[in-house]
Amino acid sequence: MSRDALVVGINHYRHLSKLTTPAEDAEAIARLLAQQGEFRVWRQPAIVKDEALAVGQKTPVTLSELEDALVKLFLPESQQIPDTALFYFSGHGLRKTKGLTEGFLATSEVNPDTNIWGLSLRWLRELLEKSPIRQQIIWLDCCHSGGLLNVSEANPDDRGQGRDRCFIAASRDFESAWQEIDGSYSVLTNALLAGLDPQRVGDRWVTNYSLVDFLNQHLREATQQPVFTNFGQPINLTRHFTAPQKPVTPATSVPSAKREFQDFQEDLGDGITLEMIAIRGGLFFMGSPEKELERLDTESPQHRVRVPSFYMDKYVVTQEQWWMVATQLPTIQHDLDPDPSYFKGNHRPVEQVSWHEAVEFCDRLSRHTGKPYHLPSEAEWEYACRAGTTTPFHFGDTIAPELANYNGNYTYGTGVKGQYRAETTPVGSFKPNRFGLYDMHGNVWEWCADHWHENYQGAPIDGSAWIAGGSSEFRLLRGGSWNCNPRDCRSASRGCNNPVNRLKSFGFRVVCGLA
């Protein structure tokens, strides 16, 4: 296993306020990664202290030096490509809002008054896209860093490379990052050091997923709210290396009593399956921000919700899946029409199904498989739809008919008009989101478990369905449909209808809890 890390801590600035903690932050991270993570660590700025390399507290770092080091990290010239590359930055973070909004990591010579801003996050995005390294880790401990990570420039497309990524930012875009009152490190780095300590997990690896779980708990009441995003498979970070690990052969290996949380397929018979995607839980902001275009008051107040891990159907339920359950599994409370859809096709979404019939489908699956299938809570649905993003759509700030099935006669933001198909499309016709889920925007509205509430005042913050109070005669619908204005297809958009109604724009997908 080959692992490289670039750790940068900049105290020295010529035209910005001097900082006191970044060098200490960076050196502590560098030591931990080298000692407990088997990383080969490069430091910036690097000095020799007590006959060993350390992060310098008074030495500047130029833009050219930082760019060269990042190219060396993510585009190595050697034929031996490392498995993992980690970039940690502590210092000033800046956002340029004139014209196009851009994010920057401030190097020592920056001077916004003369239009010198530092390392461009657009440039970093392109570097990560070109990088052949599978496991990519970015940790930013600087002011406004949540905004730097949330904009699309800091969140590069995977482009089919199957990469695993971990992004951690110290604060939301409107917040500063602070030093611990009673400590030598910043709030985020202090939490990172605690979360990366392998003593807290025994003889196991600390991974990016377990680290983010720790940070969510540890910083729940912090004055700044860090932003965390993981993609792909777990990345091993730190562990104890007190003795060589003995290889375990297949003949002597013992399966873990708790299986790895991973995707699975539910066999419905005749070669028809439900493809269930493992959605790792986490913390997110539910609802729309006040400045989001065409938002409604029903999407506020935006609030933090912690969603436990669960499984979600890769696609909305198709007509062939519906037919198998309707005809092959016994009735529990409601008979099901095997062929209710207006737009016919085995791989098209089933539609013209009521909320009660969607619940019956889940109940039959649960009895047949012994697994807890149900409709998603509204929080589970939005968390899964966003897949770590904060933009109106999981693919960005606007929408186009090439990205989703909706009424292309209408536009959103800077989008343009396009094809209006006036019917459903087969599931999987468009690119999935970063969780691997298809058709979260448009195609058919998706029933959720919750009662309708006019806004989020008093809403649960644990990811559960909100069935107390509200209007029990209406149930939630999410995602928009083939005949919707693009505004209704946003991640935060909410709809509702009577649970007995069947429309050719109503479908659903199932989720499965952890047994």
What helical percentage do the residues reach?
A: 10-25%
Structural class: alpha+beta
C-alpha geometry: elongated
Output the radius of gyration. 25 Å
Beta-strand residue percentage: 15-25%
Oligomer: single chain
Care to count the β-strands?
24
Brief summary of the model shown:
This protein is an alpha+beta fold. It has helices spanning 22-36, 63-74, 121-130, 145-150, 187-196, 208-218, 319-328, 355-369, 378-386, and strands at residues 3-9, 40-44, 46-49, 52-55, 84-90, 93-96, 102-105, 119-120, 135-141, 164-169, 206-207, 227-231, 236-238, 264-269, 272-279, 282-286, 303-307, 310-313, 373-374, 445-452, 471-478, 494-497, 506-507, 511-512.
Write a structural description:
The chain has helices spanning 22-36, 63-74, 121-130, 145-150, 187-196, 208-218, 319-328, 355-369, 378-386; strands spanning 3-9, 40-44, 46-49, 52-55, 84-90, 93-96, 102-105, 119-120, 135-141, 164-169, 206-207, 227-231, 236-238, 264-269, 272-279, 282-286, 303-307, 310-313, 373-374, 445-452, 471-478, 494-497, 506-507, 511-512. By secondary structure, it is α+β, with helices and mostly antiparallel strands. Helix 1 runs parallel beside helix 5 (187-196). The relative contact order is 0.09. The model is unreliable at 150-156, 173-183 and 243-259 (pLDDT under 50).
